[in-house]
Design brief:
about 45% helix, single chain, about 15% strand
């Protein structure tokens, strides 16, 4: 690799840290970094890393290595995804250090640690700590619901709340509840399944039935919230884009003393009947000036599923924008007076 050798820098990796952990198996992570910094020559000899290239890029890469070493010092491993996210955060000039984001543990269960993986995810979980009502709005795969459930379990274990309430509107995405087999409870259960799945990742599965029987954990359709006051609880409304404005108001006014509410949804995936407004789309204009309410937005770069999911989200957003522009142009043409 050829670069303009404006400056040089040398990084000495402490002997206590394994170079393979930093460079990756077969130098996988090193190759990723070299591809992201084409203006810098990177040479590794023993535990020394030499950098030569343009001043800005060398300084940025020096910072990146420092952040990755800080992650390794916590005992946490590096992956190609965590390195790529660190590079993105540094290039964006974000004030928060990548190491602080990648090592912010929320919950540990059965040897697995749940933590935010992007800066917006960290801002989201921090907002949950700092506000009574938080809205997490973003596309599929950005961890909105999963992180909210993790914060709920964390609050329950720390005895900050005495119960967790998880709810969703029973609105069909192209299917009809009435045509599904079974009782009403059995019909609704598939719509609540993602909430059960998240709980099973965070709590001993054998204890979940006991916690649900005792009322410590409740998973129920949104309609079951009407008429209640929810005190000392961590309450999550999932798929909130499928609430009407009236349902959203009903849910938010269930808030009781000592409780936290998290509302999650994706305003690009509304399954309500045509002509019905989404409560999630209108609520920001109503509540945005309230001090203890926070709106957090996650984007395609916060998707933590397969990286293709983020690309799919972007492709659909581009298609929708182009379709809207074409529709507006066609509408203007129809209204233009004919000579």
């Amino acid at each position: 690799m050829t670069a303009t050798n404006d400056i040089q820098a040398k990084i000495v990796v402490p002997a206590s840290l394994d170079m393979v952990s930093l460079l990756g198996s077969g130098d996988e992570l090193l190759r990723l970094v070299e591809a992201a910094f084409p203006a810098v020559d990177v040479h590794v000899r023993g535990n020394e890393i030499s950098l030569a290239g343009t001043s800005d890029e060398v300084a940025l890469l020096d910072r990146l290595v420092g952040e990755l070493l800080a992650v390794l010092r916590t005992g946490q491993g590096l992956t190609s995804e965590s390195v790529e996210r660190s590079i993105t955060m540094l290039r964006n000039g974000d004030a928060v250090r990548p190491a602080d984001v990648l090592t912010a543990n929320i919950l540990s269960n059965r040897g697995r640690t749940i933590r935010p993986k992007t800066l917006n995810q960290k801002r989201y979980v921090d907002a949950i700590d700092e506000h009574t009502i938080v809205f997490g709005i973003g596309p599929a795969g950005t961890g909105k619901t999963y992180l909210a459930v993790a914060k709920a379990v964390q609050a329950l274990q720390a005895k900050k709340v005495s119960r967790i309430i998880l709810t969703r509107p029973a609105v069909e995405a192209g299917e009809r509840l009435g045509f599904l087999p079974g009782t009403l409870s059995e019909k609704i259960d598939p719509y609540l399944r993602p909430l059960y799945d998240a709980l099973h990742d965070m709590i001993d599965p054998d204890s979940i039935p006991r916690l649900m029987t005792s009322g410590v954990i409740e998973v129920a359709p949104l309609a079951y919230m009407r008429g209640r006051t929810l005190n000392d609880a961590f309450i999550i409304l999932d798929e909130a884009q499928n609430t009407s404005p009236e349902q959203m108001k009903m849910f938010l006014t269930r808030l009781g003393f000592g409780s936290t509410m998290v509302v999650t949804g994706d305003t690009t995936q509304v399954d309500l009947p045509a002509g019905t407004a989404s409560g999630l789309r209108v609520v920001e204009g109503i509540l945005s000036e309230l001090d203890d309410v926070e709106f957090c937005r996650l984007h395609s770069q916060d998707v933590v599923r397969h990286k293709l999911v983020g690309q799919i989200v972007d492709a659909y957003a581009k298609f929708d924008a182009e379709s809207a522009a074409a529709s507006q142009l066609a509408d203007r043409d129809r209204r233009r007076p004919r000579r």
